[in-house]
Hints:
Blueprint: E1 4-5, H1 15-23, H2 43-60, E2 66-71, H3 74-86, E3 92-97, H4 100-109, E4 114-120, E5 144-146, E6 149-150, E7 155-156, E8 168-171, E9 188-192, E10 203-208, H5 225-230, H6 240-255, H7 258-279, E11 284-285, E12 297-302, H8 308-317, E13 320-321, E14 332-335, H9 342-359
Parallel strand pairs: 1-13, 3-4, 3-5, 5-8, 8-9
Antiparallel strand pairs: 2-10, 6-7, 9-10, 11-12, 12-14
Bound molecules: pyridoxal-5'-phosphate (PLP).
Amino acid sequence: MSIFNFSAGPAMLPRVVLEQAQAELLDWHGSGMSVMEMSHRGGEFQQIIDEAIADLRELMAIPDNYQVLFMQGGGQGQFSAVPLNLIGRTGRADYVNTGHWSTLAVKEAARYGEAREVCSSAGDAFHGIPDRSGWELDPRAAYVHYTPNETVNGVEFQDIPDVGAVPLVADMSSNILSREVDVSRFGLIYASAQKNIGPSGVTVVIVRDDLLDHALPITPITLQYRKYADAGSLFNTPSTYGIYLAGLVFKWLKQQGGVAGIEQLNKAKADLLYRYLDDCGGFYFAPVEASARSRMNVVFRLRDESLNADFLAQSKAAGLLQLKGHKVVGGMRASIYNPMPLAGVEALVAFMRDFAQRRG
Length: 360
Ligand SMILES: *Cc1c(COP(=O)(O)O)cnc(C)c1O
């Protein structure tokens, strides 16, 4: 039986990447050491991190006036690091609230300055994205923060919002590298690795040079972008093994036709699942508005919620793992990041169809 893992994060990794890591576990490229046992200041690890950064730059076409940093602390670490590094420019920041993670981001930022919600879809149970024309942006904000893909709610922006001259900051934790984006539209992009990049413990930050030097005096040194930029991400000991695995994933992604190639596959997977949800006759339904549906995290519910436990037990027995929705939303969620093959979504739809026939 094939196993398909729909975890929202830490999420599945490409099998070939895990096999390569397994083959290299004890002795990396004849060095006599595991990557886990190498000095982060040695030549071997320098090669690993240099290649990872170069491959990420190539995959996302990152312009030269942006730094690529590997930090720690995850997505939530950046909820603090972003205001601690940027809000000092003007003392205020604008936040777009489209779900669980943006709600936490603005709450954390308010500890360091005047962080304001410019719009919120909370009243709509985070089932859509507030129309851009209704956002009340402050031209003096240090930045505008938004969450391109709300992992818990299954809501994704289909376009980059236009916020004028104010730097745009994006929490791309759950959709980085899943679709093509024009990096030059952003002041800063960050992503915890465990959704679409690699194992947990690595946080990728892509930051424009002019935003490196506005840290508040209280900013912990381990959260200062300038320190990481100057040290080539080796300010202190980074997650060396995590960076190595991320690098293997980047190489794998290049073999899949890069971001443009994987985007086509991601579209096909999401279309297949949403089409079934819309056409299944109501046994299941997708609560998110069609225009805001995430390609990465497909949230759905059973009309008869008393069947939830049965659905989860039987899907697990069929090799379809971790379909339970986040506890704040309930229902089901199929996370179908880059490594999920089309066959995984086909197997899920076949199971759902069969379950509906038996229990409908
Ligand atoms: C998972 C996630 C986070 C939190 O990441 P941690 O690494 O657990 O702090 C933040 N934002 C988004 C969009 C996420 O998907």
